Amino acid sequence: MGQILSNPIIDKTVFSGTDEFTSFGISSMQGWRINMEDSDIQELKVQIVNTATDLEEEDHLALFAVFDGHGGPNVARFCREKFTSIFKRQFASIEQKQKQKHLESMYMDALENTFFDLDKELLSRSFNVNEKSGSTAIVILISKKLNLVICANAGDSRSIISIDGQAKNLSFDHKPNLINEKLRIEKAGGFIEMNRVNGNLALSRAIGDFNYKMNDKLSKYEQMVTCAPDFITHTLDYADDEFVILACDGIWDCLSSQDCIDLVHYGIHLGNMSLTDICSKIIDCVLSPDAEGSGIGCDNMTIIIVALLKNEESLHDWFQRIRNKNSNNKKNLISFEQKRRQIFSYYKFPDDDKLIFNATSGPPIENKAASTNNDKKGTTSNNDKEESHDEKDSKTGNPLNLFSLDKLLKADAKMNENVNTETMYEDNSISQMIASLSDAAAGETGPDTTDDGDDDDDECESANEKKRTNSTE
């Protein structure tokens, strides 16, 4: 199950933003893990320039991402700090002859090059080739000009879209036991043991993890672990398409794609929750009530909900539109409390649903630093609070009393939130030292790999046959 604390750190970092194209809410929590290794990006509008014409592309392009680190937080932090700027640089470097390509292909080329450039820049710094840490990357581009969602994925984080209340996967999890992943790993000289690469890494694609990428006889696509992303695209139809979700595997270990869609719809149906409220309540649902179970619910957790706004539609109007659709469809929605009881059926919760979250609901902390992800000041705000209840209502429980070591770790995490990415690889933080000292005993450098109950393997293997899948509804 990996390194865990004696009690979970349940304070949540929340952030929200809106413009005329998309709105989002995000919540993240360290939970039972000894470090917070997740990072994220929310860019409501990415300004892109093509040097071949020196003209800014006339497109409203939104970018969202979740990076789920393992073996330490450094790679995920680096991805958060550098991804957008590298993507802009890659798009700008496309030559004039490539200008004849469709804009969709240009975006995908720039995204793929960004994944590989992140690896290249990591190695060019003070990273050691034997560095064992890495990060998954799930990235969503939403193009207004193309009316298109592009998902680039490496690892087992996941993105989905709600289409009239039904879940459609925009990515598939890169697990070592998938047939194409298994064949690549074995051809590169590796093996699969306990559904892990060389019995160690629980996913088969990642940024970082350089000790799996050092075969100089193989291309970057053929390495035992590659950061090459797979792509799925989706043409938007605002009559049916409602919202996009991105989340790390800490969420998907506990919920199927459809479960997550249903919980978001339930939160919208209540009528008094913002997007961040819904994200936070989903995290409350899937956080393990104890550390005695199978390990489900003991990972870091990050989830982003992106509302797809029609032209001239406010976030308030979007909430009302989705609620009206729920009423018209008479959809039977499961509550947060019911889902929590289902996930942790072994645990004896209080009979009163009002008490079921008391031990797992921490106060939200607004992520001020997240505003640096936006090119223009003022593009991110808490405007979705027009749909939210009083802030006090979200504090349904008091933080647990942690042992002194846990408090020390938490304080250290706070001090390192805004770490300088140029020097962070020499970070000798308390949590890093403890993590490295216990690494051998824990025997894990990757996230837990537990079947979330989805029966998606056949679909995943079929999707994996093609590097890029263009899927429209």
Automatic annotation (TrEMBL):
Entry-linked InterPro entries: PP2C, PP2C_BS, PPM-type-like_dom_sf, PPM-type_phosphatase-like_dom
Coiled coil feature spans: none
Catalysis: reaction(s): O-phospho-L-threonyl-[protein] + H2O = L-threonyl-[protein] + phosphate
SMART domains listed in its UniProt record: PP2Cc
Keyword terms: Hydrolase, Manganese, Metal-binding, Protein phosphatase
UniProt GO molecular function: metal ion binding; protein serine/threonine phosphatase activity
E.C. code: 3.1.3.16
Domain PPM-type phosphatase stretches: 23-308
Family per similarity comment: Belongs to the PP2C family.
Name used for this protein in its record: protein-serine/threonine phosphatase
Taxonomic lineage of the native organism: Eukaryota, Fungi, Dikarya, Ascomycota, Saccharomycotina
Gene: NDAI0E04220
